[in-house]
Amino acid sequence: MQILERTLPPAEEIVRLYEQQTLAEHPIFQRLKQEPVNLTAIWIFTTNMNVEGGVSKNFVRWLANLAARIDDNYMRSIIAKQLNEELGEGDFSRIHSVMLQRMVDGLEPWRLADYTEELLAPGREFGQRGEKLFFIQDPYEGLGGFIASEVSALQIDQCLGQEIRRQNAIASEKLTWITLHEELEVDHVGEVVELARLVPTSGEKLEAVWRGAQEMRDAIIAFLDGLYRVSFS
To answer: Which residues form a coiled coil (predicted)?
Structure first.
């Protein structure tokens, strides 16, 4: 999409665009939905999210850096609210990365006995792209990446939640990450709409937000493509 060759719509249109282009239509979710519950595939998915250098172990750092670099306190307050939730609002046991580790542990019986580093490549590559977007590039590109990530996260969480509800082999206390995320991400999408409305409606900041959103969405789709490849090859 050549977003700089035409007049850009307001940043809140990022949310509408990616809601219309839902990730629920991605082949990995379509295949999971059509076949018997595949907890090994869910283990691969969550392990890639949880890998060192990946999104779960670094998202707090990404948000903290974005909050520090953005030049608007209203925007910063919305980012900080979500950062606080990622950190369990002061309760270590409810830090999202801790809860995800608990879910990965609950999936241990379906863990692949032998696997190579290639299995974890999608998570590591996604982490590298996110690190660059939130730490190196223009903070408004990071802001666009954040907006796109929250819309995408809701779609991913809903798809994973549907799969988890098709089984009863995993203890419910191991699943707090997905059950909480399905609820929180609805609020988070509303908050990033509010955040997007604070972006100027023209100029370099708007252009940067759209670039960052597209880059994040591309990175997420590449992550899902990679997961499909390593799960079903």
So the answer is: none
- Give the number of C-alpha atoms closer than 13 A to the C-alpha of residue 203, restricted to the C-beta side: 5
Which residues are CB-neighbours of 199 under 8 A, at least 6 positions away?
Answer: 10, 11, 140, 143, 205, 206, 209
Rounded to whole angstroms, the Cα distance separating 14 from 179 reads: 26
What is the secondary structure of 131-153 as a DSSP string?
HHHHHTS-HHHHHHHHHHHHHHH
Residue count (the chain): 233
Give the largest Cα separation in the chain, rounded.
Answer: 53
DSSP code for 12 = T
| pTM score, whole prediction | 0.93
Instruction: Please check whether residue 100 is in contact with residue 177, taking contact to mean a CB–CB distance below 8 angstroms.
Output: yes
Q: What is the DSSP string of 29-55?
A: HHHHHHSS--HHHHHHHHHHHHSTTSH
Q: What residue has token string 């990404």?
A: 62
Structure tokens at 24: 């629920």
**How far apart are alpha carbons 54 and 218 in whole angstroms?**
16
